[in-house]
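Lab notebook: predicted structure, single chain.

Context: the supervisor wants predicted structures on file for every construct in the current expression panel, including those that have not yet been purified. This is the next one on the list. No modifications to the sequence; it matches the entry in the shared construct table.
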Amino acid sequence: MKAWLVTVFFRSVLESLKPDTESLMKSDSTGKVAGLIITLKGNQNGDYDFYSRYFSPWNGIPEDPVTGSAHTVLGSYWSEQLGKKEMLSALPL
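Prediction complete. Output recorded below exactly as produced.
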């Protein structure tokens, strides 16, 4: 199983996303996609290094409010992007 990873550049975009779960499910016919991770780099003066949301309609979860499995991917991704080993992340409110 794999997840698609998409980076957005504006927090307002991340916060306002309302994915069409039916269309998402139709977008993969292989059965190999488990989720869609949407992430955003935190700002330099902020408390968090990155923000994220995770959608998994393929597993019956329209949106996962905890995103633990997504953070296993995001930790490596943002570590490389930011050149850091320790980071703080948050879900947008």
